[in-house]
Amino acid sequence: MMKLPAVLVVLAVLLAKPAAVAQRFEGVWYGLGQYGLLELAIDHDSLRIRQVDVGQPTLSLAARYKHGARLPIAQVVALGERHLLIVRQGVDSLRYSGIVLFDYVPGHHFQLAWNAPDTLARSPQALARLQAQDRRVLFGDYYYSARFINELQRLRPIDEMTKPEFERYFARYADKVRQATRRFEANEPNYRYVFASQLPGYNFALATQALLEEGFCPLYDEYAVQALYRRFYSRKALDKKVKAILGN
Q1: Any idea of the CA torsion for 203, 206, 211, 212, to the nearest 10 degrees?
Q2: Beta strands at 96-105 and 109-113: parallel, antiparallel or unpaired
Q3: Contact of 73 with 127, CB cutoff 8 Å
Q4: Which of 50, 87, 150, 243 is deepest in the core (most CB within 10 A)?
Q5: What pLDDT score was predicted for residue 140?
Q6: What is the pLDDT of residues 64-91, one digit of tens each?
Q7: So what's the pLDDT on residue 202?
Q8: 34, 37, 100: which is closest to 66 by C-alpha?
Q9: What is the pTM of this model?
């Protein structure tokens, strides 16, 4: 009898049990986008993503939504510590693409990878095999449960931040940027192209993470965060600080 490669044996077991994996992610999750809060709703056969306007740190999760998108889920596959949401590309298409989730903490958060392989395949099985072979270090944006978002709203607003607190926040943010840059350059073959294309959004994600770790509410858009910087520094002084982070 022909012996199957180990990766195919693992995939055969995983693909036979999609429902249990899918249930882990069913629900509504929120990501901190540059221009508002992103809502990602996952159920057993589809995911929907849309943007929520965020004007103030106090947010109603029943707020008016901007135009969103719905994608049909064909399968959810566990690949070690990663989870692959396989979606169909169009109603009549036989092509499939994947959304990779990692760093999953039940009921709290996961990260949605933005440097996972951007691959199309003719079947869920073929796509899962391709993704299972990928060994790159993943980078992503955080998505939080609705319960955690409610907890975030109870943190201090950024308009209470003093200059010493801003300096501590900025030092933490700068350290995150340096670490991410070194780690990405060491692990991503297409470093300059991929990182440059994602840098504005990823920098914002790192900034909101630093706000959270310093005890401040991170539920702001990019304009509010920029206003925070301008409260303490002129444009020229701020440019100098940013260049120092990037080593320019």
Answers
A1: 150
A2: antiparallel
A3: no
A4: 87
A5: 85
A6: 444 567 788 888 888 888 899 988 876 5
A7: 78
A8: 37
A9: 0.71
Rounded distance between C-alpha atoms, residue 174 and residue 241, angstroms? 9
Cβ proximity of 7 and 133 under 8 Å: yes
For residue 173, the cross-strand partners are: none
Contact 43, 61 (CB under 8 A): no
- Residue 71 CA to chain centroid, in angstroms? 17
Given this model, what pLDDT does residue 123 score? 86
- Cα–Cα distances (Å) from 82 to 46, 78, 108, 206, in that order, read 19, 6, 16, 21
Q: Roughly how many angstroms between the first and final C-alpha of the chain, as a whole number?
A: 60
- H/E/C letters for each residue in the chain? CCCCCHHHHHHHHHHCCHHHHHHHHCEEEEEEECCEEEEEEECCCEEEEEEECCCCCCCCCCCCECCCEEEEEEEEEEECCEEEEEEECCCCCCCEEEEEEEEEECCCEEEEECCCCCCCECCHHHHHHHHHCCCCCCCEEEEEEHHHHHHHCCCECHHHCCHHHHHHHHHHHHHHHHHHHHHHHHHCCCHHHHHHHHHHHHHHHHHHHHHHHCCECCCCCHHHHHHHHHHHCCHHHHHHHHHHHHCC
Cα Rg of the chain, angstroms: 20
List, for the chain, all residue ranges whose pLDDT scores fall below the cut of 70: 1-23, 53-68, 90-94, 187-200, 246-248
In angstroms, rounded to a whole number, what is the distance separating the alpha carbons of residues 209 and 41?
A: 22
